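Lecture notes, part 5. Sequence design as translation. It can be helpful to think of inverse folding as translation between two languages: the language of shapes and the language of residues. The source text, in structure tokens, appears below.
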């Protein structure tokens, strides 16, 4: 299969789920990140636990983990995977008035976990927005991207 070949479209142009039944299971890992830009006051309140809806980071962490587990239900044609590990972490930066969200997802399966890692950080970012929108509607979610992956035929990837 060439890199440019459409794997989710058959010869008649119909959508299909790629058949991975002949592939060997292997250890796979993917990491992703997203950024939430917000006011300094909102960031201070999140970090001090002064958001009336509760602990923003823990709610967003759980939302990211739960979303990664449901990626196959959210993204058309994604395979349901047996995930072996999911981590979601937050790195507030007061000088930039932003939060970097990172995820790490692992499996021993026939296809990669890039989408699960991306869905985890996206849903965590959306949860931060939801929990803080009443005090800061100017928040921006940006730069959601894959930062690392291992496993599979395409080999490793690491964002420079």
């Amino acid at each position: 299969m060439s890199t440019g070949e459409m794997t989710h479209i058959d010869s008649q142009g119909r959508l299909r789920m790629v058949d991975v039944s002949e592939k060997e299971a292997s250890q796979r890992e993917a990491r992703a990140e997203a950024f939430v830009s917000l006011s300094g006051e909102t960031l201070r309140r999140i970090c001090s636990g002064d958001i009336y809806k509760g602990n923003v980071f823990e709610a967003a962490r759980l939302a990211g983990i739960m979303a990664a587990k449901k990626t196959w239900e959210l993204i058309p044609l994604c395979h349901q995977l047996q995930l072996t590990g999911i981590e979601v972490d937050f790195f507030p930066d007061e000088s930039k008035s932003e939060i970097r969200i990172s995820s790490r997802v692992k499996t021993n399966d026939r296809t990669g976990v890039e989408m699960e890692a991306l869905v985890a950080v996206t849903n965590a970012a959306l949860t931060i927005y939801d929990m803080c929108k009443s005090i800061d509607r100017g928040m921006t979610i940006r730069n959601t991207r894959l930062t690392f992956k291992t496993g599979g035929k395409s080999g490793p990837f690491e964002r420079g």
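The translated text above is only one of many valid answers, since several sequences can fold into similar shapes. The radius of gyration is 18 Å.
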